[in-house]
């Protein structure tokens, strides 16, 4: 069973404008409201892959109700802690580029935080906890560590998709997967990455510090997977990019969902790349049909 945790969900308010003029009235060409937050995106793609999963996290207010209803409608099992404050709204502005304005997130009280930790009592050996996205400031930066410790007590594995110190600290607990993109990897080590060799060098450091699988995604430029056995490069399928929001989350869903079903990291990597690309080529997140179509187009080479 896979459990996703979204500490800071959002309604993603996707706004398309013909042109953006700062300081003027701009009218929308199209808009769309979707449930968002990285773990929730992972759950929505896991549902497409028929993986057994449930979505955990904090939701609250009218925005939280929207997310809850949307996920219910998609048949996604969820077990959120309902909080007093409102879930945030993140604005995704599409003009000639994509501009994102993400909220800080609601206040989560200690009582609400403890309620989430208690929900981890349902974890069992063999389960996977996917920890994704930002932490609302009121929770404190070490909240992921509290969740990881609860996860380890239950004998479950975890995947973590966050940045900076929180990710580096989590390595000690041997995550099943970490998936920085190439920019995040450079930022994490405070370096400039100039070549594939540099990516492999810094990716290996994440492995040496505890990660079981490291995937470095590079948007349309391909992806690398580093394991204790080998380094693999994957090409990404060609297509028209419509939306890159959630591509990284879809990649995690494809990897974890397939790994639990096949136990084969290479097949999981291939499905991860196809799922990321299927989202990049869609207005919303990847659908099963598109993922299946793209899987054979991903070429993997052992380096
Ligand atoms: N332009 C693209 N063309 C094809 N596939 C893409 C493109 N952009 C993203 N993808 C797919 O999605 C995967 C993850 O993308 P990316 O490297 O942008 O992750 P990310 O930065 O974590 O994404 P996010 O935008 O969700 O934060 C890529 O490995 C690839 O499979
Ligand atoms: O502010 P965070 O938690 O870092 O990221 C949140 C977010 O940008 O990530 C998802 C895409 O990956 C979106 O659904 C959501 O709006």
UniProtKB/TrEMBL annotation:
Family the entry assigns: Belongs to the carbohydrate kinase pfkB family.
Top class in the EC scheme: transferase
Gene3D superfamilies in the record: 3.40.1190.20
Gene name of this polypeptide: pfkB
Pathway connected to this protein: Carbohydrate metabolism; D-tagatose 6-phosphate degradation; D-glyceraldehyde 3-phosphate and glycerone phosphate from D-tagatose 6-phosphate: step 1/2
Carbohydrate kinase PfkB domain boundaries: 8-280
GO molecular function: 1-phosphofructokinase activity
Protein's name according to its UniProt entry: Tagatose-6-phosphate kinase
Enzyme Commission numbers on file: 2.7.1.144
Purpose of the protein: Catalyzes the ATP-dependent phosphorylation of fructose-l-phosphate to fructose-l,6-bisphosphate.
Keywords for the protein's UniProt record, in alphabetical order: ATP-binding, Kinase, Lactose metabolism, Nucleotide-binding, Transferase
Phylogenetic classification of the source organism: Bacteria, Bacillati, Bacillota, Bacilli, Bacillales
Alphabetical list of InterPro entries matching this protein: 1-PFruKinase, Carboh/pur_kinase_PfkB_CS, PfkB_dom, Ribokinase-like, Tagatose/fructose_Pkinase
Catalytic activity entry: D-tagatofuranose 6-phosphate + ATP = D-tagatofuranose 1,6-bisphosphate + ADP + H(+); beta-D-fructose 1-phosphate + ATP = beta-D-fructose 1,6-bisphosphate + ADP + H(+)
Domain of life, per lineage: Bacteria
SUPFAM superfamilies, per database record: Ribokinase-like
């Amino acid at each position: 069973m896979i459990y996703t945790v979204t500490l800071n969900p959002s309604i993603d308010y996707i706004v398309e404008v013909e042109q953006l003029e700062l300081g003027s009235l701009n009218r929308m060409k199209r808009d769309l409201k979707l449930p968002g937050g990285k773990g929730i995106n992972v759950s929505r793609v896991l549902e497409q892959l028929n993986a057994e999963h449930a979505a955990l996290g904090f939701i609250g207010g009218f925005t939280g109700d929207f997310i809850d209803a949307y996920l219910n409608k998609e048949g996604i099992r969820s077990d959120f802690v309902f909080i007093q404050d409102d879930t945030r709204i993140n604005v995704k502005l599409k003009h000639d580029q994509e501009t994102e304005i993400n909220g800080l997130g609601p206040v989560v009280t200690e009582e609400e935080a403890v309620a989430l930790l208690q929900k981890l009592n349902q974890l069992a050996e063999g389960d996977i906890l996917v920890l994704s996205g930002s932490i609302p400031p009121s929770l404190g930066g070490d909240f992921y560590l509290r969740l990881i410790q609860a996860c380890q007590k239950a004998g479950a594995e975890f995947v973590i998709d966050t940045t900076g110190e929180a990710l580096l600290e989590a390595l000690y607990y041997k995550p099943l997967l970490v998936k920085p993109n190439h920019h995040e990897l450079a930022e994490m080590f405070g370096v400039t990455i100039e070549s594939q060799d540099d990516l492999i060098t810094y990716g290996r450091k994440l492995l040496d510090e505890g990660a079981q699988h490291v995937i470095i995604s590079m948007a349309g430029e391909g992806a690398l997977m580093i394991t204790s056995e080998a380094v693999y490069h994957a090409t990404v399928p060609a297509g028209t990019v419509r939306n890159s929001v959630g591509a990284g989350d879809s990649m995690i869903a494809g990897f974890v969902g397939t790994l639990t079903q096949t136990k084969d990291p290479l097949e999981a990597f291939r499905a991860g790349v196809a799922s990321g690309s299927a989202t990049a080529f869609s207005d919303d997140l990847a659908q099963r049909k598109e993922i299946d179509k793209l899987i054979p187009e991903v070429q993997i080479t052992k380096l």
